[in-house]
Amino acid sequence: MTERARAEGRAGVWSGSWVAERLGVELAGDDGLTGLLGLALRRNPKRAHLLVSNVLGKHVPQSPSVVHGHGVALGRRVRDLLGAETAGRAVVLGYAETATGLGHSVADGLGAAPYLHSTRRPVAGVGPAGGFEESHSHATSHLLLPEDPALLAGDGPLVLVDDEFSTGNTVLNTVRALHERYPRKRYVVVALVDMRSPADAGRLADFAREIGARVDLVTAASGTVRLPPGVLEKGRELVARYEGERPPGDAGSGGGGAAGRVARVELGWPGGVPDGGRHGFTAAHRDRLEDALPGMAARIAGALPAGARRVLVLGFEELMYAPLRLAEALERTTGAEVRYSTTTRSPVLAVDDPGYAIRTRLVFPAHDDPSDGPGERYAYNVAGAGFDAVVAVVDSAADTPALHAGDGLLARLAAHVPHVLLAVVPSYVPRTPHAPERPSMLPEPLRGPDFSSYASDEVGWLLQDLSEVTLEAPTEEREEAIQSGGAHYAESLPVEYQPSEQYQELFHAALDASAARLARAVGAVTEIVLAERSPRPVLVSLARAGTPVGILMRRWARHRHGLDLPHYAVSIVRGRGIDANALRWLAAHHDPADVVFVDGWTGKGAITRELAAALRDFEATDGVTGFDPEIAVLADPGSCVRTYGTRDDFLIPSACLNSTVSGLISRTVLRADLVGPHDFHGAKFYRDLAGADLSPAFLDAVSDHYPDVVDEVHAQAKELLAADRTPTWEGWAAVERISAQYGIDDVNLVKPGVGETTRVMLRRVPWKVLARAGAGADLDHVRLLAEQRGVPVEEVEGLPYTCVGLIHPQYTRGATGADGRAVAL
Question: Distance between alpha carbon 697 and the CA centroid of its chain, in Å?
């Protein structure tokens, strides 16, 4: 970026005009909106455009007093809205990575409010108090890691802070997840800009009514982004065209000549003060930081070169607040023009044009050993911006050899800026509370015939037996409690209805038609596991849908290879993770690297993500490494995993029934009054349904085909092993499209695939079924269930699944079936 280009940028050219002219994107709203926002193009398949804030201090260097001032002003508005007494009980939650500094500044404006921000960095020894997904982001998983778990447990207002409020999905997902665990009566959503479409504008009020809480919105400005048809494809084309024209400062430029240009400056950071809000930041922390800021700024000023006129303080990803406050103090201390911005994970196209928000891009490797593996990181609008010095501020966890390497951040900066200072803030390590001693020995797995109708050598259940506890509730009552936030789905069980004679006939017909196909898929996925994962794997099924598949895989390994593989079943609960005590038992008895998690099929991939997040948490809390989050499944219609037997969406007959095809075991239960911190999750054994049990018959019907399909399995496995099986997450994208098309706010109410649709019909309150046009016998049982429950079946062209089940999004007691009651099958 040249001095002339910067002058042009200051001369009134809107930094969104380049994108607007080429894509037809319109930014409409308050008069000051274009002053707050520019536009750029994402290198992200989920969204073409990026709203680039001029006052956030992320992508665009800005005066630190302006950045902090915008957040403080929003916090004062929240304080005025709540009133002094209520504001004194508020807790502020900011979003990683972009809004960590903004959220902290809002907390400053509120006064004494404690602050916490979500993080994508697991921390050893700190268990998560919650987590959620950000569906449109390039990196979606957020963890909440407060040092004091009680931080989120109060009854005061929760103030959620993000840089922009676009669709509302992220906020709704967060509130839903937190309200389930820590219900409260009031929430305030804060953002610099409210950019919701008219269609999204009413969702916040609807959601507030749904959970029975008040939800207010406070923003600095509002408007909408109008996107013409085909904007995503046009955006991709533009990115592809301009990516070949490397802007100044992009990857590959510079890297040499850093010697002598990089120096450290010791800050004298106050002991015991956290580097940010990752684990919580209190009013007492704020007071100590305020006292120390002038001295730290003076040390930085003393290390700057004489005559430095323009200085950038560059923060690091989630570490936004500490560098922001240092920059603000430096702005008051020195006569130089001080600007502030931070590095980021977000990949954005750079175009050196005054009408484009991202003029230059520095690219460098991640340098904090991220849990999701190595990758590129970026610093925007730094190269060519005329800075005489850059003060790079990182936490000590990121002060690694990768930071100092020839292609690292410091070398990239030194190639474009005459003087680089490195200031390191000590990474805050939470105090580990005294934990009560765990029992020296967890119980041995439960086995049949005492628990389940499976033979004792087929599977060991890492569960506790809750057979004598009454846990069942009518379907409509469960749905009302689940959707209102009054109960988690794993705290009760649906009533185990006996299937009708007509439905049992349909099951047998489906099994006869598909048993050979199932045998081929079982054989193929087992061969892939043996070839790629371990020659003697430990099969660990996700109870309960995964259990029959795990048994069938174990039978194939014995039939084809003479292997007698260990096989266990464990509980995983959406929103609560995998049973950590089961993982501890497995780690004590087997090499975690040999463990292969098994499930029946994928839908949109929620459990795939849940398992990956849960294993990261377990590694952080217990220090046990080696568990592989890659699930092996019979069928992967959602394209969520790379270890599967087929990606076809067809009827797996075990999905047709509940416990009577799963060893007479219920789905798993996790309820605080029944499952203690040292217990396995629970389940029930329905001995009274033994007369209707089809579990052994299902297994035998499939495994009896093994001798006949050996050659076909060999060919299928060989083809899969040679194929590109990289997950495309097509299913998740389809669910998001369906959610938007049918006005469903919660993607968890959309259940794609034959298996998941069947579960909706058996256990939940169905709204409608979407069926792919021309789907045949695989849907006979779904059509029968839909007829019995008075649920419409809509044929849809181009559906990537055979069918999709929609849970009723606005539950009422009259929404269960034609007669308002759950149907007895």
Answer: 39
How far is it, in rounded angstroms, from Cα 815 to Cα 747?
19
Cα 195 to Cα 166: distance, rounded to the nearest angstrom: 5
DSSP state of 822: P
The candidate with the shortest Cα–Cα distance to 465, out of 486, 481, 450, is 450
Identity of the highest mean pLDDT range in 607-616, 695-704, 741-750: 695-704
Q: Which amino acid is at 288?
A: R
Which pLDDT value is given to residue 7? Answer: 40
Helix (H) or strand (E) holding 516: helix 501-532
pLDDT of residue 438: 43
Non-local CB neighbours of 72 within 8 Å, separated by 6+ positions: 105, 106, 108, 109
What phi, psi does 206 have (nearest 5°)? Answer: -60, -40
- Spatial neighbors of 99 by CB under 8 A, at least 6 apart, are 56, 117, 161, 162, 163
DSSP alpha helix (H) spans, 111-146: none
Whether the Cβ atoms of residue 786 and residue 754 lie closer than 8 Å to each other = no
Report which DSSP code applies to 638. T
Distances 562 to 39, 535, 558, 559, 714 between C-alpha atoms, Å: 61, 12, 4, 6, 16
Mind listing the pLDDT tens digit for each residue in 407-444?
Answer: 999 999 999 999 999 999 999 888 755 444 444 457 88
Query: What is the predicted pLDDT for the residue at 538?
Result: 95
Q: What is the pLDDT of residues 363-414, one digit of tens each?
A: 999 998 876 667 899 999 999 999 999 999 999 999 998 999 999 999 999 9
CA distance 693 to 532: 35
Q: Please tell me the distance from the alpha carbon of residue 154 to that of residue 164, in angstroms, as a whole number.
A: 26
- pTM for this predicted structure: 0.56
Contact of 399 with 424, CB cutoff 8 Å:
yes
Burial state string for 229-261 with b = 16 or more CB within 10 A and e = fewer than 16:
eebbebbbebbeeeeeeebbbbbebbbeebeeb
Among 649, 655, 581, smallest CA distance to 618 is for: 581
Tokens of 444: 């041995």
Rounded Cα–Cα distance for residues 317 and 518 (Å): 47
- One-letter amino acid for residue 492 of the chain: S
Residue 690 and residue 572 in contact, taking contact as beta carbons nearer than 8 Å:
no
Query: CA–CA separation, 254 vs 91, rounded Å?
Result: 44
Report the distance separating Cα 367 and Cα 385, nearest Å: 24
Rg (CA), the chain: 28
According to DSSP, residue 574 is labeled T
Phi then psi dihedrals of residue 667, to 5 deg: -65, 165
Is 426 in contact with 398 (CB distance < 8 Å)?
no
Three-state DSSP class for 90?
coil
